[in-house]
Amino acid sequence: MIMTNTTVKQRSLLGLKGMSQPELVSILDRAAYWDAHTEKQVSVLQSRFVANMFFENSTRTRFSFEMAEKRLGAEVLNFTSAVSSVEKGESIYDTVRTLESMGIDAGIIRLKPSGVLQELAEKVNVPLINAGDGNNEHPTQGLLDLYTMRQEFGELKGLHVAIVGDILHSRVARSNLWALQTMGVKVSFCAPNNMRADDMGDVSYISMEEALQADVVMMLRVQLERHAVGMLKSAEEYRLQYGLTEERAARMKKHAIIMHPAPVNRNVEIDDALVESPKSKIFPQMQNGVPIRMAVIERALRN
Ligand code: CP
After folding, report:
1. Is 60 one of the annotated binding-site residues?
2. Considering only CA atoms, which residue is closest to atom 3 of ligand 1?
3. pLDDT higher than threshold 50 for residue 1
4. Mind listing the pLDDT tens digit for each residue in 81-101?
């Protein structure tokens, strides 16, 4: 099948900003379909080639995409920049064009810088799925987070989600904000002054005490690798002011849940004992990453 540029654009997933409510719901519904599917492997994407192009480290996203592709019967190519010609100075664009010229049908891409993915997607003729670009967006993480909340509460509309921590550097906070607001969810942020962002519209910053009263307390990883020197005085001080400690978690609402995109800095933004506590949905989030990515890849490739 030859796809037109419009079709390629429509099948790509660069971000959740601007995605309509029906489209979000259709992806979540299709993920639910795959979640309930007992057959481990199907041939829906037989003879379709998908390249996982990770220019930045990943465990969850990379392996759940690969799992999703293989469950759908696709042929999978894994590209890792550390063992590629990127190490010889080849650009991201030339790398993607190289794989495109070899005949891939779709590309999953994770990038360190923000703001280059849009331009890249306009230059290639295969659908691209954003697996996290800088601090811009991480759409499949946002979708799996919505899916996890819907699984827990049935309905998203009317929920209050407090996102706590390093908002400034968080593509997860951005993707969640755009999609949750579209779904009628109230989103609040809680962050130290030097980790707040001013590019995300009119979102209220609340205290840690107020955040504990939300239906979902979503903790973010302190992204030390993206910090300027001196941004974090000490891990212990951060934990005392903004960490979800056992004592704080005990003050959450009875029905409320804890989320975190992971990887987790245990005993910094969240106490070790909470990671696998009954309120925590951290591992179910990871589990939900597979059906969500199946739905997104299928959307990108199915005739
Ligand atoms: N949540 C997430 O994106 O994890 P990875 O960096 O391991 O993919």
Report:
1. yes
2. 61
3. no
4. 877 787 777 889 999 999 999
